[in-house]
Amino acid sequence: MASRNIHVKNEFQKRSQARFFGQLDTNSLPFQDDFSSTQTFPNPSHWTDYQVYVNNHMAINAPTLGVATFDGLNEQGSPYDIQAIGMSGPSDTLTSMAFNLQNRRGSDSIYLSFFYQAEGLGEAPEINDSLVVDFYNKFGFWNTVWGIPGTSVGVWKQVLIPVVDTNFLHAGFRFRIRNYSSLVGFLDHWHVDYVRLADNRLYNDTVIYDFAYSQTPGSILKNGFTQVPYLHFKSDSSRFLSNGHQATFKSFGYSTQTITTSASFVEPRSGFLIHTQPLVANSTLATRTYFPFSVPLIGTDSFELDAIYSIWSNSSVIKTNDTIRRRYTFYNQYAYDDGTAEYGYGLNTNGGRIAYRFISTRPDSLRGISLSFIPIRTDVSRELFTLIVWKSIPEPGTGKGEQLLYQSNFQRPKYQRFYNGFVNYEFDSAIAVSDTFYVGWQQNTDTILSLGLDRNDTANANMFYNVTGTWQSSGIPGAWMMRPILGKNANLKISNQEITQNRFQVYPNPSSDHIFLSGLENQSEVKYEIFSSMGQKLQNGIIVDQSIRFDFKESGLIFIRLHLNQETIYIRVMKN
What we know:
5% of the residues lie in helices and 42% in strands. It contains two helices and 34 strands. Strands 19, 20, 21, 22, 24, 25 and 27 form a seven-stranded antiparallel sheet that branches. Strands 1, 2, 3, 5, 8 and 10 form a six-stranded antiparallel sheet that branches. Strand 6 (130-136) and strand 7 form a beta hairpin. The model is unreliable at 1-23 and 492-502 (pLDDT under 50).
């Protein structure tokens, strides 16, 4: 079976190289992608590279579900060049597969179109930044055919570019969208949606005919929570469940049309249907309210819930934007953020402190804090801060005193590879908390540490900072990506030193359903365990034929723990 694995590996490498050079079989017209079929990375059947970030949260009022975001981070979520401060250069590239236009003429009226937005919920591209489009000509060169400089005007605009030059009408025609930006991190954002390449179009052919979701539905939780510890939820679920939430879809190009909507709530581990809202047909209503329901208190210490919203219409064009999911996880953390950062937050004052207020519904043991640091402008991994837990702080207008429960030794910010990763900072001993408590830090530097800021949620009523000796409410809208960890023990902790990727080759990576591992030839029976980035065990077993097939639905960054003859190691994989 070793030869089979080598063949699969070589084939994967060959296809990767073919994508790079545009040598795969050419596609035919029409082509369209609204980035609703994948998350994190572009659809490999449409695009040849993985540098842009496909997501549902970075843009404002996107045309449809999913956008491709261009910034100064590479496909692994790291800055292109953290040392290039003050410099702008080519960053993300989104390159199409090849199209066969060999027998086409200019009179076929072929146009490329797409929507774009500068900034969104991220950082506005500056005047020396840009978004450009290149066409690949028959001589093997790229020609720039469109471009726009950076701007802070964050409205969606549609651009149409004709493909009429005979130099572009060949069998290997491709197009690419690129950005020029700061190379030092999560900056200078552009968002692209609904890319179309088709013939028989006109210069004013701007109308889309489709029905689609365009944003994440509202939360079933109230009081700003996006995640609560399961045992706390189980003790009194009424304190957390909202009185109703909404999901919104858009209609493009149709004046009237009958739309059918529904929602299902499923326990993903077993597929058990917990609740369903009846189908509702209407022709005009774009927002539907879903009413509360009872969540069964199953499981021992954790629980997951998938909310699945769907629309049906005979006139829908792209079916993948007709369904949207939102997962709720009830583990051992409180959270106000949705797990995705649109910006970074920090203080530029040595000795500055931030405090995040939480209210526990039952006495519990605080085991640590989970933090997400965002690479922006400066590598802060050598800066110092201490973690702090308070029973109370003198919030503005309350007259309360400051009561300290815990302060750690010096810590350093740690970056998690790929987008939106959290790192757990565990305490050396448990801290007893009940009712109101605060978690935060005091920094030992005037460098901004860039904690992830979720701008789709707002938790400012619970966010406080102190740079002058007086506590003040944070006025920057959003929710810090800082989560207290409670319960008997903290989530799985995997340090950067434990990741031993280079000893083994993992392919394909990213992958949706399986991976192969080379380098295990001299090992006897190898047992493995797979964990999510939050530390939840997803799967375990024995490696067969140097491969692992995924039997779980979760996507994103996962960790695979291998139990070898003499050691235990971890490997990172991005699951689509």
